[in-house]
């Protein structure tokens, strides 16, 4: 029987959401949360004997201590395989899964597997270090991800040959493997061309890297004459979130006028963001939307004027493609309104 240790965050452990993200590392015997789906895929071939749980915020803010504690747990159990996640497109969770998996692999030299959506920051950081099974964008893809992760973990545990990423389902890690295709290259190339010309989906055999490079704008010569605007991915919205901007994987952004200076921010604003502890932003939204500071700079004559509207969305789990589209639309509006500079805030 192959012995597995499984790592998950506080949300998947059923402990709580963002309000419990500072949960310290703990280890429980047996299966917790998504471990059930993994075990269904393992059948009688493997057993999750222990589950390690750590809050996303705690890991992010105490990475060295959290990693040391988790490695101590793993050393006690001495598993055959370590599985983390899947994290889907949850950024902090993905970084934690990748960090822990890499640390376990390096210290104990045992197989490790995690799972993430390709746009998860953790995927870019760790795909060359550990095997990351490609998953869908959200937890709705658990039914698809769990069997893939379980089967790949069994393959590693048994010492079976790892095939190309397109076959075994892990994110490309820069390693090229030779294998035989049923059809020769010329036939495959023509088929891809015909699909492309017909507007049908096709998969290239040699994806080119997409480098998102933005040339910096020229410096503003005189700030006292510049028009400033604020754009934030911190999710600050008017009380009640009138446009129902999603707390994760946002499909829209909001465009709102500022409340009058002197009003109490917590009576006017709140955050719709589901990826960080909302308490401090809800108490004083100017921590994320620094309109008060801009207002003071304008009074002092250090900046020229403030655009009367701010733009907001939630960056939590939002696809890069959606974010780029939001940015394009917002930029066009700001340029049309004569804005020279933008303060872009996150969380």
Would you summarize the structure shown here?
By secondary structure, the protein is of the alpha/beta class.
Describe what this molecule looks like in 3D.
This protein is 35% helix and 19% strand. The chain folds into 2 domains: 167 residues, 3-Layer(aba) Sandwich (Rossmann fold), CATH 3.40.50.2300; 123 residues, no CATH class. The mean pLDDT is 91. The protein is an alpha/beta fold. It starts with a strand and ends with a strand. Strand 4, helix 4 and strand 5 form a beta-alpha-beta unit.
Q: Quick one: biggest sheet? A: 6 strands, mixed
| CATH C-level label of the largest domain | Alpha Beta
Contiguous low-pLDDT stretches (5 residues minimum) are none
- CATH T-level fold name of the largest domain: Rossmann fold
Using only C-alpha atoms, the radius of gyration works out to: 24 Å
Q: Looking at the chains present, what oligomeric state does this protein adopt?
A: single chain
Give the number of DSSP strands.
13
Question: Secondary-structure map with pairings?
Answer:
Blueprint: E1 2-9, E2 26-29, H1 35-42, E3 46-54, H2 56-61, H3 63-77, E4 81-88, H4 91-108, E5 112-116, H5 121-126, E6 131-134, H6 142-157, H7 165-168, H8 185-197, E7 227-232, E8 236-238, E9 254-257, H9 265-268, E10 269-271, H10 279-283, H11 291-299, E11 305-306, E12 309-312, H12 320-336, E13 341-345
Parallel strand pairs: 1-3, 1-4, 4-5, 5-6, 7-11, 7-12, 7-13
Antiparallel strand pairs: 2-3, 8-10, 9-12
